[in-house]
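Q: Fold this one first, please.
A: Sequence and structure below.
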Amino acid sequence: MEQDESERMKDESSESENEVYSVFHFGNKSNEAYKVQINVNECEIAMEIDTGASVSIMSEDTYKEYKSKFRIEPTSAKLRTYMGEQIPVIGRAIVNVNYKKESAKLPLLIVKRKGPNLLGRDWLNKLQLDWKDIFSVVGSDNQSSDLNVILEANKEVFKDELGTVKGMKAKIYVDESAVPKYFKARPLPYALKDKVEMELERLEKEEDLYATLGGGQEYTKLDLNQAYQQIELDEDSKRYVTINTHKGLFRYNRLPYGVASSPGIFQRTLENVVQGIANVLVRVDDILITGKTREEHLNTLSEVLSRFKRIGIRLKKQKCVFMAEEVVYLGFKINKHGIYPVESKVEAIDKAPSPTNVTELKAYLGMLNYYNRFLANLSHLLKPLHVLLQKDTKWSWKKKTGKSVHRVKTAVEIRISTCTFRSEKEINISM
């Protein structure tokens, strides 16, 4: 019987759990440090390469940001700086690490200390880093401080506080025929979604969004701090979001999650803020900026941050990515060459077991539909599967159905990229 990878790693490391590891540079962040973006448990984490660190570590601040993505266990491992100072260890996790085309399950120590996340020798021995790319990024950072100047000029945007959008308050529209209902106190806030009118403005389709990416060379991804709650509610709307708790009735003062119209209100607000700025994509609380040149990109970033500062919006700097050659946005990997599926999602499709009932089949088709743009003739490939969803059709998994799943998985594994739309290119229309 094959041993689970995470269990195997636990066994292999059990003897070394009591070792004292050296971490030389933790806490002394250097402007000239070599840094790299690593996908850890589907989170984009900036890590500082430290050949002086025998293990890889994550700071407490970063862990708190992505806490739900990590399952940590107690550890007796000890960390010491070169001065002999002990660094408190919160715990240890086995994480899924993805870097470019490489993937591995690796150990990660979470420490109770501020500072950069460190990529130590244990990970360096397992990952083949693109040093040419890393050196070029460091070189460009050293040659120009334009980005740092922009960030410093707009540092107010990155304050660790809840922002408040100035000059507007959200209004929730409710059907006049809706009858209020009284609910007993619940442990979590509860919103009456089905009685709230949806915003008339629909969120842009992904095709419309990605058309803006044409010609982009580098990408900046901005993450808002407590997104919706940066918008205050008007007085009339507060009565619609009253919640019952063990301490009595409370009303939200700010736009809450769970209300059907919240995404539309927030989307419209941000679109108004960045209106007229080219090369900016807004999808609720995820903002992507690009440019055909570095100068154009920096100018756009400067204008966006300046507007955010004026209107009172706050960002989570530790979750933002600046001037990267590749980013993951809305579940897609994006670079100057095009748009690609994320490896972890492709792997999930490939390893998914064959559905055994209609519910499982619908879930599987939903997973495939997310990447339908990459799969030619998908509707034809899935025809035998859609037959099983027809009314009054008895569930019967036939050989032809199984072949359909196999062909789809093969097509997904090819991972054909989608090019971003370029308006200046010649367009051929086939009839």
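Q: Good. Now the second chain.
A: Here it is, same layout.
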Amino acid sequence: MSDEGLDDSRAPLMEHLIELRRRLMISLAVLGCAAVGCYVFAEQIYQFLAQPLAIAYGDDKGRMILTAPQEAFFTYLKVALFGGVCVSFPVIGGQIWAFIAPGLYNNEKKAFLPFLLATPVLFLIGASLVYYLIMPLALEFFLSFQTSGGDGSLAIELETRVSEYLGLIMTLILAFGLCFQLPVLLVLLARVGFVNSKQLRGGRKYAIVGIFAMAAILTPPDPISQIGLALPILALYELSILIVVRIEKQRGFDPYAPVDDDIDDEDEEPTDPLFDDGIAEHHRAPDDFDDDGMTDNSRKEP
């Protein structure tokens, strides 16, 4: 390959790298500005995230504690970064789309549009589920182990560290939001032909085990939060199968149709080059030649 050809091949790659760098810089700048802005309202964001614990305490005057002088500062930094990610997510998603879209045809862009709309919606549904339902139920379960003491017994009271509680709820919000992207992933894989409804149904038992194992890892060790994550994901898995079936019907594809791999060899002509006229002359049997060493075809030639 000539140097000119190498330069031509490098040019598109360099253009893509420059464009990628520009999109990353814009995304990081927006994320940084959003995080700084959220730090100004870090206390309000903290109060919002602490609301499920306040609801679980009810009329009791619950509290959270700090165990290190710098804990409040770093906690607010985490809260600001968490808020910055949530606020800048649409812009970051737009930058990703702006980088990918020029390489797609119009029909491919239209095919991606439902996935772009479903991604933030499903994330918000997952985050709302953990904030409004799972966390209050799980916290009520944990608070049920408190005892008032008396009669020679010691009281058991929950005093949660601020950083531990906020780390827990922020992790669960992100985990539920990401896990709710399962239909987007499976349907996208089905659209490009990597999976079909038959494979998804056949792998259902493995999916159940994997989903419950993932829920046990991502959630606290209590049955409420684990089941609260696993059951919606299983429902989304079944919903994904129904969507994939609909896509297959639109395409006229039946994954359960038998595949006929048999080939009728009798109707096919031999493709071996030894059967070509020019080469077969050298592979004739000895009986095809007469006493003069000539074939019948050669005698007929003038």
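Q: Anything worth noting on the second one?
A: The chain has a mean pLDDT of 79.
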